[in-house]
Specification:
By secondary structure, the protein is of the alpha+beta class. Helices cover 23% and strands 28% of the residues. Strand 1 and strand 2 form a beta hairpin. It is globular.
Length: 71
């Protein structure tokens, strides 16, 4: 059968970019290119020795979530 895709009214979107060495996350507004919150493994709050593994991704996720809650 056919499925309809539900359109979610979410005003913010999460974009994650990963390179060989670092992980970056941005939360931006749907209507434009305004970045609301961001975090990466290059931030001074990042305190793990490895910067491109699963635990680094989890830490970047925590950082960007904390910053997004401050909006």
């Amino acid at each position: 059968g056919k499925y309809r895709r539900k359109e979610l009214a979410v005003p913010y979107h999460l974009r994650v970019h990963r390179t060989c060495k670092h992980i970056y996350a941005q939360i931006f507004m749907e209507a434009g290119a305004k970045v609301v919150a961001c975090a990466s493994t290059l931030d001074k709050e990042f305190d793990l020795p490895k910067t491109s593994n699963i635990s680094a991704a989890a830490k970047v996720g925590e950082l960007v979530a904390i910053r997004a809650k401050k909006i």
